[in-house]
Amino acid sequence: LSGLTISGDLLVDTNTLFVDSSEDVVGINTTSNLNQTLNVSGTSSDTIDETTGVVKFEATGGNGLLFGTQASSPFRSYIQSAYTIDTSLAQYDLLLNPLGGNVGIGTSSPEKALHIKSTSNQLRLQDSTNDKKYDLNVDGSNFSIDDMTAGSSRFTIKDGGNVGIGTSSPSAPL
Asked: What's the half-sphere exposure (Cβ side, CA atoms, 13 Å) at 48?
């Protein structure tokens, strides 16, 4: 067989592969809710490894990306860069916009290299050795660094310019 032309829809093995020629969409493991150009349906799992992702992109040599969803609450989705033949052997850095451009989390118009917009207004930093946690917070009138392990504010800048170290209510510029 050197070439094959199919007019109309293509269905392979019930729903393994479905091409809807009138809508120009493709479904893998699904023939319904085809609202994107490529629609992939898979099974969620609470294990993240080479056998459980919904989608795997693998380059020559086994390096690649796994995309998946967790099956139990709190339901989450993930992208893992790893040696996709056996993820326990190697996990790799995930590069976002390595050639330039901004990355937005919670915003579709990032203004800086990393722009985070959230109703919680927090960025958490956590030490993997001793689980020490610090939150950077921005709200309507304050910027603060809070020690979440100790449950206290370590540094606060009020909207008017007062700075507090060890207090969340500074009454003087410093």
From this structure: 16
